[in-house]
């Protein structure tokens, strides 16, 4: 494989909690940054493992039918990925888009992949086709438990509730799509309700 690790001058650069993301032409560079509060050897190992894990889970999700950016190259701390030309779902979400997101999350969970940070800011609607892509698998992991799936869905509902006025309609649309593809969808949604009750109890305590 020809290395793509040396980007042209990036057009845009974003500082995230765990990484610096640079956009250059048709590519996205995600570089995990050093954490000085960690022991150097541990920091090196964690960044290397998390980078490889993210690349693997992005590719695995795509093989199982969830649109994700193609990973072109990976080294110890950097992913080079396809740049998806589009708009973040947070800026144009509709009931139809929310339902399709639910379908994709259901497929992801059927593959035992937990995204870890499903928000409308980690979903892109492609400009030309309207295809929906899940991005940023930096917190993703493999887990088939009802609890992990429930937390994943709960995070998405929280992102809707915090940023979108038509919360109830968007939530119902997501559930329609999720139920279509997810294993044990009823149990997962029951767990989401339980997680929400836990949160309300903590707030009142």
Structure, explained:
The chain is an alpha+beta fold. It has two domains: 12-82, Phosphorylase Kinase, domain 1 (2-Layer Sandwich); 86-204, Transferase(Phosphotransferase), domain 1 (Orthogonal Bundle), CATH 1.10.510. It has five helices and ten strands, in the order E-E-E-H-E-E-E-H-E-E-E-E-H-H-H. Strands 1-2-3-5-4 form a five-stranded antiparallel sheet, with helices on one face. Strands 6-8-9 form a three-stranded antiparallel sheet, with helices on one face. It has a two-stranded antiparallel sheet with strand order 7-10. Helix 3 (146-163) packs antiparallel against helix 4 (167-181) and helix 3 crosses helix 5. The mean pLDDT is 91.
Spatial order of the strands forming the largest sheet = 1-2-3-5-4
Alpha-carbon distance between the two ends? 56 Å
CATH architecture of the largest domain: Orthogonal Bundle
Q: What share of residues is helical?
A: 40-55%
CATH superfamily of the largest domain: Transferase(Phosphotransferase) domain 1
Radius of gyration: 18 Å
Summarize the helices and strands and which ones pair or pack:
Blueprint: E1 12-15, E2 19-24, E3 27-32, H1 40-63, E4 71-74, E5 78-82, E6 86-88, H2 95-110, E7 113-114, E8 123-126, E9 132-134, E10 141-142, H3 146-163, H4 167-181, H5 185-204
Antiparallel strand pairs: 1-2, 2-3, 3-5, 4-5, 6-8, 7-10, 8-9
